[in-house]
Amino acid sequence: MQPSNNQEGGDPPNPLYNLQPLGSVRAVVDNPSPNAAAAAAAPAPAEDPNAGHKIGKFKYGTSVSVSNKVDPIREDGISPSIRKSGFRAWVAEHPWLFTGLVVLGVLSILTVIIVPSVCATVGCKPKGNGDSQEPAASLRVIVRFTEAEATVKQLLPLLSKYFNSTKLASSALEVLQFDNPEMLKQVKKLLQDKYSAILDIMLDDFVMSTSPTIDSAAPPEEHWSPPGEPGSPDAPSPPGSSTNSSGPQGNRRLSVNTPYPYDDKKADPMEKTMWHLGAVSAAQAWAATRGVEDVVVAVMDTGIDVDHADLSESIWKNMGETPGNGIDDDGNGYVDDYSGYDFAGPCTIDWRKNIPPPQARPSPPPPRRLRSLQQEEDQTGLEAARLNQPPLRRSPPPVRVNPAATRSPPVPVDQTYTPGGRCGADSDPRPDTSDTGHGTHVAGLVAAVRGNGKGGSGLAPRVKLMALKVADPSGSFYASNIVAAYDYALRMGAHVVSNSFGPREPNFSPAEYEKTDDAKRYKLFERAVMPLAQKGVLLVAAAGNENSNLDRLRDVGMSYLPCTLELPNVVCVAASNNESRLWSEVVVSRTVGTNYGNVAVDIAAPGASIYSTLPRDNYGIKTGSSMATPLVSGAAALVLSVLGSKDGNYFQASRVKNILLESGDTRPGLGVASQRTLNAGRAVQSAMSVTGSGSLLLVPMTVNVSEASGVLTRVFSESYFRVTPTARDALAAAPVNSTAPSPALSVLGLMPFATGARSSAAPTLRGFKHVGDDVVVATRAQLLLPNRGMYGLNLITTAPLSRVAVTVGQRQVTSWNATSTRNTWLAVLQVDDAPAWYEFEILYSNAGNQSVEVRWSWPGQSSFSFLPEGWVFSGSMAPALPLAYMPRDLPTTANSPASEVPVGLGGWNVLWGAMPPPSATELEPGLTTVADVAGLRVFNPNFLASLSANQQYPFSVFLDELNFATNVTLAAALAGGAANPRLADAGAVAAAGSGPVFGIATTFIQSPSDAPLTVTFRITCAHCALYIDGVLFHETLDASYVPGSANPPATTTRVTPCITLDPVRTKDTANAAYRPRHRLQVRFAARTRVANASLVVQQATCAQNQAAPSTFSNVGDIAAPGPWYKAAGAPSTNASGSIQCDIWDSEVIGGFISSELGNIPRPEDKAPAARFRLPNSRAGSFPCYPPGSFCPSGLNFTTKISDIIPVAQLPDYLYIRCWAWWSRGFTSGLMGIHSADSLTLAVYLGGQQVYQSLSYGDMTPFSKQSRAPNATMLGNYRQLVAFEWHLVSPYTRLRVADGVVTMPPDGRALIVDGSFSAPR
């Protein structure tokens, strides 16, 4: 039923409701066009404005009128479109067509009956609703590797000519663009097969842009009085005036350097209809600032009319680019990106066929207006006349040229392959002709100019708009374009990013595969947005308009991207109406409105009937969270204008977010987390008050480092980065006398090539691992500041200040004050939250290797010194997690033979090898004259960081302690002869004495009591590093060692700072079995032919603010149960042993991702569904003759689960772990596993994963290859061995062979002899 047009009292007619084309922008409502409004107002004929149009909801404001007229009905009641002849006549005339229709009908009935049954059994992907079609699949794939330097082009060089490759510098995401779907599949398969070990993300491109929307209602009757309007209070002086106030709460106003071209004390004619400006207290905000041009808001949307009279002055300009010359002048990888960029291009991308070159883009059509002509007559005569005449433009938009001539994707780009006819990105960010003005409307709400006598005003009229078009003409927002735009916004200096788009719709009843897909998409967005968070760029995202509670999505494991990203820089915004309630209304008997959520959504802002700019100098009304989002973005820009007024730092996302959420108008019961609506005036005043002192207000961390960390110590961590040649040259060219860090001093988007650790007891930074013009070292820690007040910060260095950047509590010191002491500089910090944790970082481009020192003063102490003990820490930022494949308890006399019971906890497992000298053909250029090439490799400062417990080592030995003071005892211990040299392995003896040795020694430690343990370690070595739970806490490096010298590094003894294990207990750990167990790892390299080669590790308890202990004990005194132990007796010689097998239901474990191993729990944490032991009398072997008979497997590790447990008692799909304590290792380090090519499985030995297969096609490095040590020297130790099968059926054969690579054809397998022991 169509809405009635019977309006009384001049009320506006009901709006038109339009169907939306494929993929559009978020939740927006359009006005009817002026022509439609005029037609509705015409006295005769009186025609319903909705006549001839379908009434339906549409997505994100893309409006397309669809004819709904039916054939005229004749007087006889029969439409002319219906033939006069009857049904039988038609059948007789079309017999074959009738037969085909009958067959089709029968098939349809069968489908209706069969498909639901099949879907109920195996699951079917649901189709979208009828409101929009599924977008055409894009032949793009988004990839990311864990190794920063890896690219698909490098890994698959022979196929690189078949695709374009674009790698985004900030997030390391790589977008692959294909022309052939088969080649896309082939590349994906090769990446999955060969490189899954380093494959972080591989995801098909997808559309983010469809969300149900409706047309808006008429604007509310109430108006506000803008400053500068007659009858309103005197307009405040604009920014840049000479009036200033000294008090932070007074009318202090900010100044700007560039004169504003308009008198923005005067209101624009349509401001009085912009009720949202009054609702957010814009006048109060403008009393302090209307924004500064240094603040840039990136609008990622359908494009912006950059020539609009109310927007052109606000458009950001890339001053490094000369527009229209076809050259990438600034070298950022984009040609002619003078006012932004169009990442989607001017034509719809369908990679399944060739696309002709785009046609010239005509001028956009005029917008539809909601008000009738009678209402417009109430406006000023000038406004009415202007709106009823064709829009005035200086000139029509320039004709778009072929993008092939100007397109240039982000660097680095492989442009080898660019098929003809492809329609891609270009430098024109204006909207397409099919656009309804969504992006232009959003842009006007942020920064439409004020005082030009036209239209209305944006909330932050003096800030700049970066136009980033990410939607194609169909309104589809492809993820590849979105992540590329994030990267661009970050690189080009945007401070706020406004996102008025989201997913197609919230999915509250997802299938498992949909949860898996959503997790991948969340990971993609997280990787793309994380660099923005790290830089301090605020991302404001719309909550969508499905009138749904987004908290329910969290409950079912789904997201609503980017709004529900759990990152500190993301603000999720709902829409409110003029009654300060969440917007909702009834349209065609259906309630529509903003999404909400007491957890997922942060704040609400006006979003109903919002007046703003439309293309071609037009204006109109739209409704939805898409309109609320730019208002929050504009308010954020105003707050940043204030916060950055002192130091020029406009990258303060977390701080701005806190201010916006805390300063809003309280609305009890409002369905958002803050229970507040936006108040820009109060937010600006709050920013003014906290910056009035001139100091840098520090922003505390959102987590308690003590609670979040399993390990806490007083050290600085170091990471070394290599910057680009452009950044290197910029750093070199920075003025020597500058008191501010160079803008080029940044490591954003870079991956460290080396790491380190240094004691915070002497925070003078010198003696760096790496020095160079292109090297930047990041020294980091977390500060626990106990007191509120003012802190002084002294920077003491002879290095140029342009090469040093100090950041405390998210505030970078951008200008240092000189002191009376030479080479000493001062900054003042303000702490309002205490006690609280604050991040600390020093970035130093150490080309000259000058030292850098930081000293502090704090409330109550005026002199400068190092921060007290207990104020500076580095935390692991993660708790200690148990090994999932290891049982919680060790064997006892109650469940195991006496010989298998532990005689003590602890012991070290040392995985090691020898570095042989390279052959002549292996010598790297320039190394032929080095005295000790092998030593050059292992004594390299980066070598220890490259070691991993999961790589293959030739030898494994178990030792009670690391206490070897000479090269003789060290070599003997590594060879297994520590207790008795005659028991040493001959091959290990030869290796230990042949050259420099290297390896990883691992043990597990825990607090011996139910309390935190503070411990220090004394380490004697030449070249070693200490890690706890994977975090580096200490290094011993000989700074005087000359790489490649015949003399190895000197052996020294050093004591670590105090390290606290489990600083905060979160559960009852009175029972030692429940206490966290920490992996202590010592990575080492030593020249065993040198007499003083030593490796000694000891421990002692310590206390803060006290001298280091003088007495140290064995590490075994604080040992924890680990995946090995020393047994009471020698290995058993019994013929038969035991292996325990536990089975879990796949539904209990959770979703399965073929490229990853599942998370099988410990039996103590989640009880198995079934259990059995091997050997088992019901276990059968294969092959078995005669076929169909039963052949017992005996002691062979081979069986089907269905042989032992009836299938009826088992779930359909299983996770299985078979484990035991083992007194030996795999023969020659080799093993074979049945059906490894088609099964997902893993094998663990001690603390190593020694085998992995991710089913079909898994060809990652060392996949389906044993990484077990070639020789294992256990003595009386037992090590855990665990075999895991993931998502297999009850009919799967479990079979493992020892000492072979290929499975024996006769069915032989690993013998479960007395060397295996599984407690009962």
From TrEMBL:
Keywords: Hydrolase, Membrane, Protease, Serine protease, Transmembrane, Transmembrane helix. Residues 240-250 have a biased composition (Low complexity). The keyword Transmembrane helix applies. PROSITE patterns: SUBTILASE, SUBTILASE_ASP, SUBTILASE_HIS. It comes from the Eukaryota. The keyword Transmembrane applies. One of its GO terms (biological process) is proteolysis. InterPro entries: Peptidase_S8/S53_dom, Peptidase_S8/S53_dom_sf, Peptidase_S8/S53_subtilisin, Peptidase_S8_Asp-AS, Peptidase_S8_His-AS, Peptidase_S8_subtilisin-rel, PfSUB1-like_cat_dom. Residues 227-239, 355-367 have a biased composition (Pro residues). Belongs to the peptidase S8 family. The chain crosses the membrane at residues 96-118. It holds the Pfam family Peptidase_S8. The active site is at D301 (charge relay system), H438 (charge relay system), S626 (charge relay system). Residues 425-435 have a biased composition (Basic and acidic residues). This is Peptidase S8/S53 domain-containing protein. Residues 212-267, 349-438 are annotated as: Disordered. Residues 294-664 form the Peptidase S8/S53 domain. GO terms for molecular function: serine-type endopeptidase activity.
